TrEMBL record:
Residues 166-333 form the PurM-like C-terminal domain. It comes from Companilactobacillus nodensis DSM 19682 = JCM 14932 = NBRC 107160. Pathway: Purine metabolism; IMP biosynthesis via de novo pathway; 5-amino-1-(5-phospho-D-ribosyl)imidazole from N(2)-formyl-N(1)-(5-phospho-D-ribosyl)glycinamide: step 2/2. Residues 51-152 form the PurM-like N-terminal domain. The gene is purM. Belongs to the AIR synthase family. SUPFAM superfamilies: PurM C-terminal domain-like (SSF56042), PurM N-terminal domain-like (SSF55326). Its EC number is 6.3.3.1. It comes from the Bacteria. It is found in: Cytoplasm. This is Phosphoribosylformylglycinamidine cyclo-ligase.
Length: 340
């Protein structure tokens, strides 16, 4: 007897298989994967707990995974959510994913492998999700992924603009590359304006193919930054995502203060130089779109600068003093060394 749903193009058994796969991969944690809703018990020890949530996707970066490299895109999805939560001073505690595709097959397991790894890096539990098979909306090979995460913080410890003071030092933490922003422009530059492909080797990118650089997963900052938050060493955090420096850094500043940043003060990944060269993009425009080598910027008291840098650079050099907070004269952010 045929299943009328399968005749319409939907295989219900594939969803059960995915649920079983996730249960097996997260067997070391107490999980109610497969229930109607994800459940998480608020930890003990909080006096006035505040829950901070974020949802996001990875944008058109996922179009570059059509060559079959699907195991890192889930890390990107987790990162985009948990880094936002961290920027508010909260510890990410759980995550849920949503994957939609024209056909549920082994690509979903590959994507979820990245989600599980991202949750491991973030110290967050994967407590649920949804996989939707949607023929006619998507082709069999296309898909989309979105995530939702929740973090927790003491109410008095939530980071807000009022925490940031004049003369605070700005410390930038390196990104792993482009993260998950600007990929519509990236694809235009490399694949439409130039006849490159994912396997192209460029002299500007000595450590791999173009595809290796473009699919480098978004860095998750939880393990680096959370101890500093616990020790109350941070006044403010800007997660450098879509909109680059000009949109995201002012989000952590009071209206009367400005960020003055020396753009020559940190090491930049080669991919940004390649994008600027092949896209013929002005320097200022690069800082409007991309993270330019810094995925997170912290505002800290000058007295704590040495300690914070020492902690962040314990295992490798990844953080620099990039500027300071000043009284606002004109703009909320001023970048030195950038040509308009």
């Amino acid at each position: 007897m045929t299943n009328p749903y399968e005749d319409a193009g939907v295989n219900v058994e594939s969803g059960y298989k995915i649920s079983k796969f996730v249960k097996q991969k997260t067997a070391d944690k107490k999980s109610n994967i497969g229930s109607f809703g994800g459940m998480y018990e608020i930890p003990d020890g909080y006096k006035k707990p505040v829950l901070i949530s974020s949802n996001d996707g990875v944008g058109t970066k996922l179009l570059l995974t059509e060559n079959g490299k699907l195991d890192t895109i889930g890390i990107d999805c987790v990162a985009m959510c948990v880094n936002d939560i961290l920027a508010q001073g909260a510890k990410p505690v759980y995550f849920l994913d949503y994957i939609s595709t024209g056909k549920v097959d082994d690509k979903v397991e590959k994507i979820l492998t990245g989600v599980i790894e991202g949750c491991r890096q973030a110290g967050a539990d994967l407590i649920g999700g949804e996989t939707a098979e949607m023929p006619d909306v998507y082709s069999e090979t296309s898909y989309d992924i979105a995530g939702f995460s929740v973090g927790i913080c003491e109410k008095d410890n939530v980071l807000n603009k009022a925490n940031v003071k004049k003369d605070d030092v700005l410390i930038g933490i390196s990104s792993s590359g482009l993260h998950s922003n600007g990929y519509s422009l990236i694809r235009k530059i490399f694949f439409k304006d130039h006849d490159f492909n994912m396997d192209t080797k460029l002299s500007e990118l000595p450590n791999g193919s173009l595809g290796d650089y473009l699919l480098e997963p978004t860095k998750i900052y939880v393990k680096d930054v959370l101890p500093l938050l616990d020790d109350k060493k941070i006044h403010g955090i800007a997660h450098i995502t879509g909109g680059g420096f000009y949109e995201n850094i002012p989000r952590m500043l009071p209206n009367d203060l400005s960020a003055v940043i020396d753009t020559d003060s940190w090491v930049k990944n080669e991919i940004f130089m390649a994008v600027q060269k092949y896209g013929s993009i002005k320097s200022e425009d690069m800082y409007h779109v991309f993270n330019m080598g810094l995925g997170m910027v912290l505002a800290v008291d000058p007295k704590e600068e040495s300690h914070v840098l020492s902690e962040l650079n314990k295992s490798k050099l990844q953080a620099w003093n990039i500027g300071k907070v000043t009284n606002r004269v004109k703009n909320s952010i001023e970048l030195t060394g950038v040509d308009a």
